[in-house]
Amino acid sequence: MNTDYKQVATQVAIIGAGPAGLLLSHLLHLQGIESVVLETRSRPDIESTIRAGVLEQNTMDVLIEAGLGARMQAEGALHHGIELAFGGRRHRIDLSALTGRAITVYPQHEVIKDLVAARLAAQGQIWFNVDHAVLHGIDTDKPAVTCRHEGQDIKLRADFIVGADGYHGISRARIPLSARTEFQRNYPFGWFGILVESPPSAEELIYARHQRGFALISTRSPSVQRLYFQCDPKDDVNAWSDDRIWNELHARLENDDGWKLKEGKIFQKNIIGMRSFVMTTMRHGRLFLAGDAAHIVPPTGAKGMNLAIADVRLLSIALNRFYKTGNGDRLDAYAETALRRVWRAEQFSYWMTSLLHHFDDATPFQQQLQLAELDYIVGSRAAATVLAENYVGLPHTGAESA
Fold first, then answer.
1. Nearest alpha carbon to residue 35 among 166, 169, 162
2. Backbone angles phi, psi at 127, to 5 degrees
3. Strand ranges in 198-254 using DSSP code E only, listed in sequence order
4. For residues 170 and 15, is the Cβ–Cβ distance under 8 A?
5. How many Å is the Cα radius of gyration of the chain?
6. Taking the mean position of all CA atoms in its chain, how far away is CA 297?
7. What strands, in cross-sheet order, belong to the sheet with 103-105?
């Protein structure tokens, strides 16, 4: 890359066209704030990457309020409960009865399609296929991003840079090690995930605790289902034939009540690692981090995308306040405010993971404690409410409101 840059200016440069980056760009647009989103992948790539799709109540509300919820409401599956399976029986947790709130199963790539369409319809700038992006001057009041886009070397000047480019992106790495505070836990298991062409096996998600390991029934559409089971994170996907996969899922999910798992054509297999990660340094100078760039949760609690949405909602409020009044107090408080929700979600996801998975080093005593706690949850309204209110998403606090 040479130094003959094309000079471009905006108010907020956003690194990453995932749900966090795209939604932030749209929320800023609604407030009259300019932004440019930079993405290394193509539009077809980001719109076809299939990931988790459980939207908590807060996320649903944000999308609807931003005018982005029409397709989600029409095509997403609104769920008022989940089921816990253990000890040979299934038990329903009535989320709506316990909390007055619900979840919607709507795949992440569909959220991205909605966001991309909305940004392009509003003449928003999304730069796909960006190469050689480098952040500059984040410790100054004139940060910039240099990159190559559509054959042109560009220097994008901005007031602020938001890193919403995930754990492996360039943003977090730009913060000096001496300025970072990070916490991490790696779990000794992973999830083997499959996508299946079949009708749903159940109306709601089923979280199963079995002696052979955890299993989960989710859905993606009326004709595509997402199933997971606990596995060795170092396992080889190719070692699992379709028959072996179905035998394992039948063993972990079916009880003696006559319910049967519906099989179908498996068209995707992958193994997901499990870890918890929090970087409490969510701001460094004019660089702000959001979503997986700053925190990762194991998928058991269905919090990953929802936390990212919560982050950028906070940022949009803080940036709007700064541009409208010149007051940067919400920007200064961003990390502290966001981290309260992050750590709550981390604790819930850790708890759900510990409650439902088989640990190879667990003693028979510890395994019985798992079952005792599960039995308490399904038998106590108070205990079930704790699970339910965390699962659907805790309401925004005063510090998170506009």
1. 162
2. -95, 105
3. 206-208, 215-219, 224-231
4. yes
5. 22
6. 8
7. 54-55, 103-105, 77-79
Give the C-alpha separation, 372 to 194, whole Å: 30
Rounded Cα gap, residues 246 and 236, in angstroms: 16
How would you write the pLDDT of the chain (402 residues) with one tens digit per residue? 456 899 999 999 999 999 999 999 999 999 999 999 999 999 999 998 777 689 999 999 999 999 999 999 999 999 999 999 999 999 999 999 999 999 999 989 999 999 999 999 999 999 999 999 999 999 999 999 999 999 999 999 999 999 999 999 999 999 999 999 999 999 999 999 999 999 999 999 999 999 999 999 998 788 889 999 999 999 999 999 999 999 999 999 998 788 899 999 999 999 999 999 999 999 999 999 999 999 999 999 999 999 999 999 999 999 999 999 999 999 999 999 999 999 999 999 999 999 999 999 999 999 999 999 999 999 999 999 999 999 999 998 888 887
Q: Distance between CA 75 and CA 97 in Å, rounded?
A: 23
The amino acid occupying position 267 is F
Please choose, from the candidates 347, 349, 384, the residue with its C-alpha nearest in 3D space to the C-alpha of residue 83. Answer: 384
Return the structure tokens found at 63.
């999308």
The string over 11-32, giving b where at least 16 C-beta atoms fall within 10 Å of a residue's C-beta and e elsewhere, is bbbbbbbbbbbbbbbbbbbeee
Residue-by-residue DSSP string for 149-161: ETTEEEEEE-SEE
Q: Which SS3 state, helix, strand or coil, does residue 70 take?
A: helix
Q: How far apart are CA 180 and CA 115, in angstroms?
A: 31
Helix then strand then coil, in percent of the chain rounded to 5, is 40, 30, 35
Take residue 391 and report the two structure tokens written for it.
Answer: 């699962």
Q: Give the chain's end-to-end CA distance (angstroms, integer).
A: 42
Residue found by looking up tokens 């602020």 in the block: 160
In angstroms, the CA 140 to CA 102 distance is 43
The DSSP call for residue 303 is -
Counts for the chain of helices (H) and strands (E), in that order: 13, 21
Structure tokens at 106: 């709507």
Token pair 């089923």 in the structure block, residue: 206
Decide: 280 and 339 in contact? Cβ < 8 Å.
yes
Distance in angstroms (rounded) separating the CA atoms of residues 266 and 353: 26
Which residues are identified as catalytic?
Answer: 79, 207, 299, 303, 391
| Tokens at 253, concatenated | 């999910």
